[in-house]
Amino acid sequence: MGRLGELEPVPRKSTVEIVSDELRSAIMYGSLEPGAQLGEAELAGRLGISRGPLREAMQRLVQEGLLVSEPHRGLFVITLDEGDVEDVYLARLAIEREACRLIMARNRGEAVARLTEALEALVDAARQRDRVAMSDADQAFHEVLVSSSGSPRLERMAHTLLVETRMCLNALQDTYPEPSDLVEEHRRLVDAIGDGEEERLLVLIEEHMTDSIHRLRATRP
């Protein structure tokens, strides 16, 4: 870092990083659907780039587990079977349960303030009955919950589940609880933190995750 007030070059993302972000977002929101095959020529044309950085970006997503390489066939977006979905939510439960414990042992007031703001975004989306916006706000609420724990490692672990969680949420949209019920589920979490009731908070976060697993199972034939 230079001297105080001295201007320095602003870090810029590489083409590979930008393309990786684009592909993650497309997978997250379903533009690239589960099981879809990725054609290099088509994607390079759509993104307006050469195949070199595209190949590197796709390999990053293979390493992250979002794409799978099938010999003699190519690259495909992962599909999440029932076991994968359950594993995603059990991993989230482990992370968020520990985040809740840390919140209760640290600065509950700051957590409540941040989560209340996140809850308001969910309320707005629920009022409009916008399922995509509700999924966005739902996910953002839980990101704030983990971030409020003050543990960068828990936050990093939660971030690795970000795209898979969103793929689950896309599947959940048809079986989401009523908007008012979804808001109430999250409001109870905030209230438990505000009231200092750790035992109730841990029960609520477990119920929240297991209910999501049950709803996702209901979407499958």
UniProtKB/TrEMBL annotation:
Q: What is this protein called?
A: GntR family transcriptional regulator
Q: Does the keyword Glycoprotein apply?
A: no
Q: Recite the UniProt keywords alphabetically.
A: DNA-binding, Transcription, Transcription regulation
Where do the HTH gntR-type domain residues begin and end?
A: 13-80
Concerning InterPro entries, the annotation shows: GntR_C (IPR011711), TF_FadR/GntR_C (IPR008920), Tscrpt_reg_HTH_GntR (IPR000524), WH-like_DNA-bd_sf (IPR036388), WH_DNA-bd_sf (IPR036390)
A Pfam family assignment: FCD
Q: Does the keyword Transcription regulation apply?
A: yes
Q: Which residues cross the membrane?
A: none
Q: Which domain of life is it from?
A: Bacteria
